[in-house]
Amino acid sequence: MGSTEGFRIVLLLLLIGCAIAVNLTKNLMQAVIIFMSYSSIMCILWILMESPDLAITEAAVGAGISGTLFLMTLKKIKAEDAGENEKKIKKKKGKR
Amino acid sequence: MKKVFDRFYNLIAVICCLLLIGVLLYAVSLLPSYGEENPRSVEVVERYVEHGLEETGATNIVAGMILDYRAFDTLGESHVLFTALICVIILLGKDKKNMRREYDSYYTVEAESYHLLQTDTIVRLVGYVLLPGLFLFGIYILLNGQLSPGGGFSGGAIMGAALIIFAVAFGFETVDRVFTEKLLKTVTFVALSFYSFAKGYVFFTGANGIDNHIPKGVPGAILSGGLILPLDIAVGFVVACTMFGFYSLFRRGSIGHDITFMDQQ
Residue A87 belongs to what domain range? Predict the structure, then answer.
């Protein structure tokens, strides 16, 4: 029981870390990938909370399909490297 | 002036966030702690755990809950998915008459990457290895909803994901031979109306105290749980169709046969 408790605390800390990292990252592609890893951590947490039904759905929908749809949207609006462009523009401005 | 306003705006935003965090944490502190009995809903929980198996015939009590006791909720959820699909069709669907000139060049770029993707050997080989297992796993979860964890939503989502991988690995043209817009409309319509009528019948007979002649079966067998298995299949098909429909519409603006690609070639 003790080891499970420690594992759970580590997972919860990772969850909070992911939630903050999504807000702080400038690159949209990275944000989507962090969001997908958030779902994967949540999936393990559902199993630890003894609800495998939710874990399967979270893994398929949260980590799989919604991430794919986000990536498709980024490609559609041509913003795969939106954050990177901003950085480049800032650097150019600095040089001037 | 603008700088002062910006600073003021940031300050207000931070205060609002802190207030919201405080309110949410206060609300969480009022909840009963994990694993403790909640006095307000304890009657329902006891009823579900003790009589769930004999009343619904499902070994998986969660499936008995969402597709028997709370079947009306699941009906609403399926219709929400259906409505979302219709909205995506309205927003992203391409119409030959409404095509605007400036987008034409954009679609040719899309078409090029689409053909490049189709010839990717690694993706195709991974598809060969993964796809049979994925489809079987989805069908297994769908059919065992009343016995083991899983059911309509998860099985349907896995089948939808498998269809998406199929489209990525072998191209939309391969999927289009089987999966057309007409098929999607038919499957979704039949599944949703079957769900509504079957559950309507059960609710009508149950409310009037009439016996509803649906065999419960032996708990633990595949064909058990009364209406849970057919309803699981209906929900699973709706979810799979919706997931693939989303992907297809996001990717190229139509579900079935793509008219604009044919015109360009």
Answer: 2-95
